[in-house]
Amino acid sequence: MREFFGFGGYARTPEGYMSWQHILFVTLLITVAIALAVILGRRNRPRPLPVRNRVLIVAAIAIDALELFKIVLLCFRSHDAMNWLYNLPLFLCSIQLIALPLAAFSRGRIKDAALDFVSIFGVLGMVLGTYGAGQNYAAYPVLSFDNVVSGITHSISGFAALYILISGMASLKKRNISITFAILIGFCCAAYIADLLIPYNYMFLMRGDGTPYDIVYNAVGGSPVLYPLCVVALFLLYIAVFYLIVFALKQKKSTTERQPAMK
């Protein structure tokens, strides 16, 4: 247990990013997340909203409790009470620590916008935070506290997104687009300020750190201006494409339903 939690540092050599151990571990996590989302989403789809919302409440409590436990343990492990500065919820995946509770506990338009935000970024965060987490799996053994907690929290994000979509809780209305953009831009600004003050690399706005963001970083030659702008632009583009696909599918479904049945 001492080795699993990393007290005194990990004695084991990391298996490595994209090793078969890494791929197997995160694939198992994602498979469980998808299976639970499909099973619970299909079962609860015809049920009232309060019943469907209970699953999100459990997911929101679980993801925040795990993250809080991780921050406390990392501060204790490092013997540095200020270690929390390097574990703020300012990564793209970490936004779910706030968005998911909002989706579970709020009401009205805020709830709709939070549900949409989780739906849009949950699966992307799950994939990037598991298969794309080169900074973690290159530094720590696969079965270590750092990677296990990270894998579970990212999988919860993906689970919540799929559950919201499958259970029919996502509104994905045009009026929520501006709120979705505002949430993301607000977090990017907060992350960038934190990166300059601490300094750190929240939202990977400073560098790629072995993640797929390295492609963008190398493409702009590591420019401290162009790189963060390109990363934010990619986030916004992803939101726009997601909404465009949803609207196209809705339009196609509406057109199909209006067409008279063939005799």
What can be said about this structure in brief?
The protein has 263 residues and is mainly alpha-helical. It has helices at residues 2-5, 20-44, 49-78, 96-105, 108-128, 134-137, 145-166, 177-197, 213-219, 226-258. It is 67% helix and 0% strand.
Question: Can you walk through the features of this model?
Answer:
It is a single chain. This protein is an all-alpha fold and 263 residues long. It is built from ten helices and no strands. The longest helix is centred in the last third of the chain and has 33 residues, at 226-258. The protein is globular and about 70 Å long. The relative contact order is 0.13.
Q: Can you give the mean pLDDT? A: 90
Uncertain stretches of 5 or more adjacent residues = none
Number of strands: 0
Strand content: under 5%
- Count of helices? 10
Q: Percentage of helical residues?
A: 55-70%
Q: What string gives the helices and strands in order?
A: HHHHHHHHHH
List keywords for this structure.
single chain; 263 residues; mainly alpha; 10 helices; 67% helix
List the helices and strands and how they pair.
Layout: H1 2-5, H2 20-44, H3 49-78, H4 96-105, H5 108-128, H6 134-137, H7 145-166, H8 177-197, H9 213-219, H10 226-258
